[in-house]
Write a structure and sequence with these properties.
about 350 residues; alpha/beta; 5 strands
């Protein structure tokens, strides 16, 4: 079997060609590789300065999708280089300035300027700057394209494990995790910050919660465990609708427990504590006896108030439980025995 390199040609193209392609739809972002924009402003500024100074930037990989037989126009998918091309287009569209934060030459005459404010010579430098493009032939299969993308990025620290999984898996499990990530609950309680969302860490964390629903607390929450579950439920996930309903019901219970409670609202922003409360909310849904969620909410707020303030309960037994919970929340937090014990401590404290 031929190696992928036999299907790749290396050519140079100016920024003008790339920007025109992005604008007219002849160069497209393939969301099966990277779904979310990763770079922050300082990264984009650094790239534009690199171009202005005439230094090389990493090559871009474009995969030929198809050629229109009538017009001769060819559509290319960006396999690798989305951040670079998106940054150049955004700058040319005057969407960000060359702020000092991302510049090496902070006193340069281009510092603080939009593209439209650059000199004619500087604009020309950008338009003419040659990108090295690796054009991948249409005949190379999508499977091999994914392998190529993963090979390119597994040794590249710019992509984390979840971003790599996004390229490797496109099935029902990851799609459900992404659907759940759009629930208003996360924004209402500010569980994820903008960096989490940009780097798909919300999808990763939600995946660990789905793993609990699917396999219980005894299942590991490591990167390899997430990969295994993604692979297992990529093609066939018949329980998806049921798991989604269970997940949303848990979020409803958590909403009643968390809202208007100062200490619980603060503590749930920590993923370790949220995971514990998620399991506890699931437990409340499954026990036979009814419980007053207002009472549970008040008790949990009191518990986390002592935790946050590092205060003494005035009750030797509860103080001992709290100290154990603190240790389990700070050391080996992903170990299943620690996750199990944190849940048991909360259950014991509440008394249900």
């Amino acid at each position: 079997m031929s190696t992928p390199i036999k299907y790749i040609d290396v050519e140079s193209r100016p920024v003008k060609w790339l920007v025109d392609g992005l604008k007219n739809g002849h160069i497209i972002v393939d969301n099966s590789f990277q779904r979310r924009y990763v770079w922050v402003t300082k990264d984009r500024v650094a790239l534009i300065e690199t171009i202005l100074l005439g230094y090389p930037v990493p090559e871009v990989y474009l995969w030929q999708n198809a050629t229109d037989p009538e017009t001769g126009d060819t559509v290319f998918s960006i396999v690798d280089g989305q951040q670079r091309l998106g940054s150049v287009l955004s700058f040319i569209n005057d969407e960000f300035k060359l702020t000092a934060l991302g510049l090496d030459n902070k006193d340069a005459d281009y510092a603080g300027k939009l593209f439209s404010e650059l000199s004619p010579d500087q604009k020309s430098l950008i338009w003419k700057y040659p990108f090295s493009i690796r054009f991948i032939e249409e005949s190379l299969s999508k499977e091999n394209i994914v392998k190529l993308f993963l090979r390119l990025n597994r040794t590249n620290t710019t992509l984390n494990p979840q971003e790599l999984r996004n390229a490797e898996f496109s099935g029902q499990f990851i799609n459900l995790a992404e659907e759940i990530s759009k629930h208003v609950f996360w924004e209402d309680f500010k569980i994820f910050n903008s960096s989490d969302i940009r780097r798909m860490l919300d999808i990763q964390f939600i995946s660990t919660l789905l793993i609990f629903i699917r396999s219980g607390i005894e299942e590991e929450t490591t990167q390899s465990a997430i990969n295994r579950i993604y692979d297992l439920y990529n093609e066939n996930y018949p329980e998806a609708a049921g798991d989604k309903d269970i997940f949303f019901n848990i979020l409803n219970v958590l909403t009643e427990i968390i809202q208007d409670q100062e200490h619980t609202t603060e503590i749930v922003k920590k993923k370790t504590h949220f995971y514990t409360l998620f399991i506890y909310a699931y437990y409340l849904m499954t026990i036979d006896k009814t419980c007053d969620l207002e009472v549970v909410s008040s008790q949990l707020n009191e518990w986390y108030g002592y935790y946050i303030k590092n205060a003494d309960f005035g009750n030797a037994y509860h103080t001992k439980l709290l100290e154990e919970y603190k240790t389990l929340s700070q050391e080996g937090v992903q170990k299943k025995v620690n996750r199990q014990r944190r849940f048991e401590i909360i259950k014991e404290y509440i008394g249900l």
